[in-house]
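REQUEST
  id: r-88c1
  op: predict_structure
  target: EDD domain protein, DegV family
  payload:
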Amino acid sequence: MQIITDSSCDLPQDIIKKYDILVVPLSIEIDGMNYVDGVDLTHQEFYQKMTASDIIPKTSQPSPQSFIDVFRQGLEKYGEILSINLSSKLSGTCDSAMMAKSMVGGEIEIFDSLNGSLGLGLQVLKACHLSKEGWSVDKIVNKLKEYREEMKVIVYLETLENCVKGGRVTKTKEVVANLFNLKPIVHVEEGYVRILKTVRGKKKAMRNLLEMMEERNVNFKDRIVGITHCDCLEEALKLKEEIIKKFSPAEVMVTTMGPVIGTHAGIGGLLVCF
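RESPONSE
  id: r-88c1
  status: 200
  body:
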């Protein structure tokens, strides 16, 4: 079985190579220049360009043709495909995949992760593990539905700068937030990104993240916890240490947040999924 996803998954390259995952890239426009995510723009280059720009980057879903090319490649090699993609509530990526499926035909299953970044990436990794164990596509999809339902994704925003650039927050609200050191925490709910709470100061926000993990009352010993960061590796590693100390999960995966989700989170943002 060929597992396919898109570049918003933020999985490390060693994982992508290990499980032979095919990745369909999204596109990014920064200051009038177009880039292909992960092809001619690294995450580090993206953050440098985004920081230097007064305009929020624009991301674009892959074309159906991009999926067609990859689907044909996957079918030729494995005969059946499971494509797990960015939330349909955040992007038209799943629609492009569905259009490509109708044009290619064959054994292709499209699964809407209702998530992004490692919220998507961990679903892809789960599918890879199950495929290696010999599970059928139907059984993997049913398991992914359960996993998707159980998954919690929380995002800490260090700054509202990109929310202001994107017109979602007024400059006045940004000034007030900075004045009182208010830090928004958002989460993914039913595929949408929604504000969960606003807390005062980064330390309190980090405590809140850990408290929310504790409130889930799950056994982390057999779970992978994912952390993606927007150019703030040191903070991500500190959070990883705290999570290991408090919950002893099976693994904590730390990687950079790519342009697709990082555009909205902004520099200093942290995403935790489990």
